[in-house]
Amino acid sequence: MEVGAEKINPYHGDSRPKTEQVRDMFDSIAPAYDFMNRAMTFGVDKWWRSVAVNMICKSNPATILDIATGTADLAIKLADKMPAAHVTGVDLSANMIEIGRQKVAQRHLSDRIELMTADCLNLPFTDNSFDCITVAYGVRNFEHLDKGYAEMYRVMKPGGMLVVIELSTPVNPVVKPFYRLYTKHIIPLAGKLVSKDVRAYSYLPESIAAVPQGENMLALIKQAGFGDAHFKTLTFGTCSIYSAKKSLD
Fold first, then answer.
1. Are the CB atoms for 141 and 68 separated by under 8 Å?
2. CA 239 to CA 241: how far, in whole Å?
3. How far apart are CA 211 and CA 138, in angstroms?
4. pLDDT at residue 30 tops 70
């Protein structure tokens, strides 16, 4: 089943598969990525990650897979909060992974966080490998969301927990016009000034608008086999956190 976000590609007129375009886009913007994340969200993205990590802490996982790990912000936060856990982070972009490794080394966490390049649609892990799987701001970049969730289900241990953080579109009629102005005009302009990739920060609001949200996202997660699926919205609906579990059966 094809969903809207899969049709939104970073580069208009580029006939390459979305996966290749996403990889090249993040390779291009890697040096500016952390700065832009903080600037675009006024630092609130850190709180969003904290909310997700606190949810995960309750299940006390020993092994965590962080998909679309980027520069490892979530992987580092997970390792900080759960000293006994081992975190594996994967991402398409080698440049993002390299910055992530530098941050991990600076925090002296290299023995507990392993970062590698990998395709989320073809994960290099055996079945039933991880107690918990996380994705922060990444699923809208998947070329095939259903295959991405199916792979997460495959490599998760029975009883494991899935937590997905994703940007979303507010429905509040007061907030929505300001959100639209900010995401469609201000963020792309700032992205052009800071990043050498002029398309990347126009692609961002397009992909947010197109990605399944709320119950529609839960339906995709359940379709992959997960149960006990829920979501919550944060900051006027600009962020959603989805959680689900793989049954013990």
1. yes
2. 7
3. 11
4. yes
